[in-house]
Amino acid sequence: MGVIKASIGDALLTSMWVFSSPLLKIFTSKLFTFLGVQPLSLSAFFITTISATALVSIFTSIGAALGGASFNPAASFTFYAAGLKKDSSLFSMAVRFPAQAAGGATGVMAVLGVIPGEYRKILRGPYLKVDLHTGAIAEGVLTFGRSLALLVILFKGPKNNLVKLWLVSLATAGLVRTGSKYTGPSMNPASAFGWAYVNNWHNSWEMYYVYWIYPLIGAALAAWVFIFLQLSPPPSPTKEKKA
To answer: How far apart are CA 241 and CA 237, in angstroms?
Structure first.
């Protein structure tokens, strides 16, 4: 029953996140125009990270209220592989991932139903811009980077929670810019599935190979690297020779 309850929370939170993300993108775009800021400028980057921090802060609170719900399968798998989710297992992941994917599809359908038509043409979600294998490796490497940054910032970073969230947003935004010419990027399999569903390519090998398999591999590798760095024994002190 606990897994079912967690899955329902995941589905609900993911649908809300995927619904909100495009609205944030539209809001920041309008804000750039109002302030006369170029979209690729440093000022725009700063505004984007602040806006994302505010949104993630809200969803962190909602996730906690839902009993630890998550809107990103890659993040869930990162914490599981790092041993930071004692109540998680491969079985629970196998149940929660489809729920998150369903939430992603629901969120995309909902947001496309309420936004003006002019924005539907530019909001298409992540898609492959390079060959299949290059895209898969890129998505895996980007997810590895975000997952490792997430672990380091949350468990080794500053004590202030808002600063932590801003640093996570900063790392994510930097990776999004870096990966924009490869896969979108997504770094969130549930969100990628949602957009693939409405664009009718959710059953393709490309969807699972690029946006599920490699990101989860990247998430697991990030967790193992974090564990290795955590468990590495300190250098042995040099013994002083007796006179």
So the answer is: 12
Within 8 A by CB and 6+ apart from 31, the residues are 37, 47, 51
Residue 240 pLDDT > 50 = no
Q: Give whole-number Cα distances, 118 to 27, 37, 54, in Å.
A: 14, 21, 26
Cα dihedral 165/166/169/173 (nearest 10): -170
Whole-angstrom Cα distance, residue 38 to residue 45?
10
Omega of the bond prior to 185 within 30 degrees of 0, cis? Answer: yes
Collapsing DSSP states into helix, strand and coil, what is residue 209?
helix
Q: How far apart are the first and last CA of the chain?
A: 68
Task: Provide the token pair at 198.
Answer: 């409405």
- Helices 132-156/161-179 angle, 10° precision: 170
Residue 39's pLDDT is 84
Residue 184: left if φ>0, alpha if ψ -120 to 50, beta else—which one?
left
pLDDT mean over 73-84: 93
Q: How many CA within 13 A on the CB side of residue 181? A: 1
**Residue 121, SS3?**
coil
Per the structure block, which two tokens stand in for 62? 């909602």
* Mean pLDDT across 36-53: 90
Amino acid at 205: W
Closest CA to 166 of 153, 177, 179: 153
Q: Tell me the H-state helices in the chain.
A: 2-35, 42-65, 73-81, 90-114, 117-120, 132-156, 161-179, 189-198, 205-208, 214-231
- If you search the block for the tokens 């393709």, which residue do you land on? 204
